[in-house]
Amino acid sequence: MDGLLTRCLRPLKAVANYLNAIAGVPDYQKYLEHMRRHHPDQQPMSESEFHRWATDEKYGGKGVRRCC
């Protein structure tokens, strides 16, 4: 049963990853992989820290800047 569920969810996960990449949503798993390969001596950010950092990078500062 688990194998069937995994096979059914795999295409949906691929579509979700594709849409996230188009929308510019950062991939925490890729970040962790990068840290393991290139910076094994450093502690990676937590997932919430990573997303906060990515938002700051995307919008240029602390939190989302809005005109209204």
Keywords:
68 residues; mainly alpha; 3 helices; 68% helix; extended
In a nutshell, what does this entry contain?
With 68 residues, the chain is mainly α.
General description of the model:
This protein has three helices and no strands. The mean pLDDT is 85. Helices cover 68% and strands 0% of the residues. The chain is mostly helical and 68 residues long. The chain has helices spanning 2-23, 28-38, 47-59. The N and C termini lie far apart (50 Å). The protein has a domain at 24-60.
Classify the beta-strand content into a percent band. under 5%
Query: Helical proportion?
Result: 55-70%
Q: Would you list the SSEs in sequence order as H and E?
A: HHH
On the 0 to 100 scale, the average pLDDT is: 85
Termini separation (Å)? 50 Å
User: Per the principal axes of the C-alpha atoms, what is the gross shape?
Assistant: extended
State the total count of DSSP E strands.
0
What structural class should be given to the helix and strand makeup?
mainly alpha
Number of helices: 3
Specify the biggest β-sheet.
none
Low-confidence stretches: none
Rg over alpha carbons: 16 Å
InterPro entries: Sel_put (IPR007423)
Pfam families: Sel_put
Protein name: DUF466 domain-containing protein
